[in-house]
Amino acid sequence: MTLPAQSIAPSSPARVDARQWPDVARIPHVPARAAVARRLLGRIARRRGLRVELPGTRLLVPAPAGAPVLRLHRPGSFFHRIGKSGLIGFGESYQAGDWDSPDLVALLTELATAPETLVPTGARWLRHLYVEHPPAAELSTPDNARTNIHRHYDLSNELFALFLDATLSYSSAVFPTGPGGLPAASWDGLAAAQHRKIDRLLDLAGVGAGSRVLEIGTGWGELAIRAASRGARVVSLTLSEEQLALARRRVAAAGLTDRAEVRLCDYRAAHGEFDAVVSVEMIEAVGRPFWPVYFATIDRVLAPGGRVALQAITMPHQRMLASSDTYTWILKYIFPGGQIPSLDAIRQATDQHTDLRIAAYDSYGPHYAETLRLWRERFTERADEVGALGFDQVFRRMWELYLAYSEAGFRTGYLDVQQILLTRPEPAR
């Protein structure tokens, strides 16, 4: 999908605050690596049919008509950043305004298609020159997890309200399907599609009147409100102080404080016994080393006969293994400490560390692509309002890239989203 005409314009280097964005402001000087990056981009452009535009209407290599466009405003800065830090440099270069595209999602979708083939086999040894490992300070230990969550979810409730629908749901919606089974998505239908997603999860978990429900990851409280409205008694856990305050106000406004309690609490400290555990796109923040304790905690608090309904972003298992110890632009700037699991990894963690087993799952990645499209369009349309909240142009371009990059991942199938039911099998007789 094409970005709206009012897409966020590139910044000039002088507008990058070096105190807030040190690695965006700093342009590395690595001539040999920059030359290699230039040659690799030329090869990628030829193989993938990309149009790489240089200043002065020049092209890096010949390109077919209608090709996705990568428009380099400052090619020197771009190639030195790529040469120094690979895809992290690619993202920082966009934040700095070194490059643009009239259709960012189309470009990123092409690049996200079979990403393992972008770099020729003979040149993959170069990867060790720029690939970093996630820093220990971002590992989602009990001490670090709140800081990681704070960096994203405590940015500003007002920021999220600018591009989310009235339910304040920050996870994939489930839209009605149109011709060919494709999601029929529109902004006007987004709130209803979010409720459809929540209701499917609550049904999967068997939540009804009198159910004792634990929610791991409150968001802004919509699922807790919806479950309590069914007559359930809900305990919802969050590490975000911003979300905690607003979710409590929303629960009170709905008249449900007697049935829904929101706690500032790490999932590892959960206690009690629950008929249903529900968690929506929270496992991605747990981190691979802690998946065993995450599922063991769920197993510990789940009552006999209870059900677990998860919504999780997933990726193919081999891609997960290949990227699990790599520090990416998304981890550095958007979701520190995170890791997207595979369905196989979830199965392995539950099989090895709990009595829980996957009883059913359903994927609907195209619905997430459409959810992200709606968020991205809304975000870019309201960029001036984002700026009025105090978020500078580097931040706004960072979030535009994050939303477009994520959308492209779901459009190619590199990413998927699943609703997963976990239960304890009946003992053999």
Structural description of this entry:
Helix content is about 45%, strand content about 15%. Helix 8 crosses helix 9 (about 220-230). It has 2 domains: about 15-130, no CATH class; about 135-425, 3-Layer(aba) Sandwich (Rossmann fold), CATH 3.40.50. It is built from 17 helices and 11 strands. With about 425 residues, the protein is α/β, with parallel strands linked by helices.
Q: Can I get a quick summary?
A:
It is built from 17 helices and eleven strands.
Query: Quick check: average pLDDT?
Result: 93
* CA(first)-CA(last) distance: 55 Å
How many helix segments? 17
* Low-confidence sequence ranges: 1-6
Oligomer kind: single chain
Task: Offer a few descriptive terms.
single chain; 429 residues; alpha/beta; Rossmann fold; 2 domains; seven-stranded mixed beta sheet; four-stranded mixed beta sheet; 44% helix; 15% strand
